[in-house]
Write a structure and sequence with these properties.
The complex is a heterodimer of chains A (441) and B (302).
Chain A (H helix, E strand, L loop, with lengths): L1 H13 L1 H12 L1 H17 L5 H5 L2 H4 L2 H20 L1 H16 L4 H16 L24 H18 L11 H10 L1 H20 L2 H18 L3 H16 L4 H6 L6 H13 L11 H9 L7 H11 L3 H9 L1 H5 L4 H6 L6 H23 L16 H8 L4 H38 L8
Helix pairs in contact in A: 1-23, 2-7, 3-6, 7-8, 7-9, 8-9, 8-11, 9-11, 13-21, 16-21, 16-22, 17-18, 17-23, 21-23, 22-23
Chain B lengths: L2 H41 L5 E4 L10 H11 L5 E6 L5 E5 L9 E6 L6 H21 L4 E7 L1 H12 L9 E8 L15 H8 L9 E8 L10 H5 L1 H5 L5 E8 L12 H11 L3 H5 L20
Parallel strand pairs in B: 1-4, 1-5, 2-4, 5-6, 6-7, 7-8
Antiparallel strand pairs in B: 2-3
Helix pairs in contact in B: 2-8, 3-4
The chains are: A mainly alpha (441), B alpha/beta (302).
GO molecular function, one term (chain A): protein-N(PI)-phosphohistidine-sugar phosphotransferase activity
Keywords (chain A): Cell membrane, Membrane, Sugar transport, Transmembrane, Transmembrane helix, Transport
Main location (chain A): membrane
Chain lengths: 441, 302
Amino acid sequence: MENIVLRATLWFRKKIFFRITDQTLKMVMPLAIIGSFFQFLWRSVFSDDSLISNICYFDNWMPDSVYNAAWYACQGLSNVIFNTMGLFVVYFAAHFTAKTYHKDAQMAGLTGMLSLLLCTYRFKQPDSSNLQMNFNWRSLGVQSLIFALVVGYIVGLIFRFLGADFRHVSHEDSKRIEKRAFAAFKPLVLSLTLGLIVGALATIVQFEVVASNIYQFFQNEGQNNLNIWEYVPLLILALVLNWMGMTQPILQLTSNSSSATTVANLNYALRHGSSWNVPNKFLGNSIYQSYGRFGGSGLTLALLIAILLIYKYQNTVRVARWSFIPTLFSSNQGALVGIPIILNPLYLVPYVFLPVLNILIAASAIALGWVPTSAYPILTGTPGPLVAFIGTNGNWNALILSLLLFVMDILLYLPVVKIAAKVEDEITRINEREGREVAFE
Amino acid sequence: MPLNSKRKNKFIIIVTLAFLVILAIPTFFWMKNTNKIMAERRKSMMSPVIMIPGSSATTNRFNELVTLLNKDTHRNHSLLKIEVQTDGSIKYSGKIDRNDNEPFIVVGFENNRDGYSNIKKQARWFDIAFNALTEQYKFNNFKAFGHSNGGLIWTYWLEHYYDQYEDEISIKKLMTLGTPYNFDETNSKNRTLMLNEFIKNKKKIPSSLIVYSIYGGESYDSDGLVPESSAEAGKYIFQNQVKHYTAMTVTGADAQHSSLPQNKEVVQVIEQYLLNTQKERENQQPANNIKRFELNSKKKKK
């Protein structure tokens, strides 16, 4: 069994696209770690509906100016980093692809950025007056990394077939630079043309409208679907997309905003003093919030603990350490990008199915009358294992259940992390054999 | 893996667990407390009428109106008066009786001058008073009444402050009396900055609100102070945004701007439309629309 998983993972990891993805994500890791740290400060500390600001009564003693300044600073930093992340990802994806084939990697990266911008440009809303350009920012941000990776990869391939062979040297004279620049023309023109076509098509078919309709569907299902068996397949789909680097579906499906169903539950609970017999017992979203996301999607906190406990590659352990605190408060982007978990074939199965397993166990516990439904509202940044406890107004069974599930998740992640170490061993060995330099490990 | 790194990792995990336990304690008390308050608010039968007087008027402005209303309805609504000082502190006078479900609360300001910039300030001061009221009296709905500029303060407050309460407390009705939505402009085409901004932000006014705008007709086009067209301009803000918007003109004796709050017809209209009817009183039930808890810190970002 272990061997099959090991071999399958290796087969994927040898594919150039997955290799490029791995290198690219490791390269933008520092951005993601810093971004998620400030996202944690913004959402979980300096936010009106955050746990920390409420239990520390910031409002009573912290001057408004300090509080607001911190809010703006953290919000700005994390938004700028995450909403432009696609640009850096496309740069490095094109860069590493071109480098693999010994082409001009820097020009490829630059071309990748331009192509991505063209793909996401809003052709119909030009603003000639003050040089403002409109882009579909959703496709430029961390929400759609897969898109940036694919564009970068394709641009890299274009350089592979149309670009001139190239070796990076430490000193370049102007003749060499000129040659380099001229050699970039052909792949540049083709990449930009393709970017233009994709962008124009996206405008014509109103890609943004279609996308927002799909997101709306996810949100609606998350808020109103009372049938756990219909919710689970959607959750699986959203988690797979999230693993691929598309964040929006899972965010919409599990959004924390109040809906008619949750309001009915809450008011029932308020009337009866407990949430045992609320009208909507099996609301997928509330079960997911309580038991399916310890440290953000895919139970990232459990994975990080597994890594800290047994993983031997120091760099990954360091990433796990640095992204630990934000992940504890559910800002897990740093870990998703830095480990990396996104598009890492080994983590697909646990990332998607462990949360589902948790939900099904929790739903059974609710059905058997062991724990009540979570109906009381929770504050942003409540640490994962405490959410069920808070959501049930302090039901001890709910706390025990979530701690048991949490330990189970860590134990189930341990063998996966063991295989991950073996995969790394194997890759190091292959790279040494092929005499290829190991990039950044 | 070096041994000390492994030790460091275990240390991190243990510290995190300890931190979680420490964090859980205040969280537990916070949770019990907010959920209790939330349940109290849901259960509450109180539905106050909150009144804001016009410029240059004090919190005593509605004494006569309240006396008339109490005499007419044979119910003893209690009267609480609150004056917000320029520094944001609050002075109370009067009180709310324990078993009064429909008290009158008048909120006035130390600085009660006219002008759009003062109205914005007064809306901020009003919010301080409202916030204090919501904490002290756990009502889940209320009715609003504003005379003259008081109606402007209500409108500004609804557009800029109400959203932080609407998950727990709903405004049912708003009645404005002789409110100059377009200041003293007689031509509704000349919109003042204030009216334009009110119209711009109208989407923030809750769509479930019922609005009554009453103005006096001393002459054919004015109540002696506010032009009828200025009072009528409220329709540009409320119409097509709220559930119902009704405009009424009161003429005859006491239709002058400053006499309106003592006008017999106005008292009738308030009784009939603003106060809870006999039927509403009998059928009153706890609210079932509490969406979430009250935060310690009110939303400051706009």
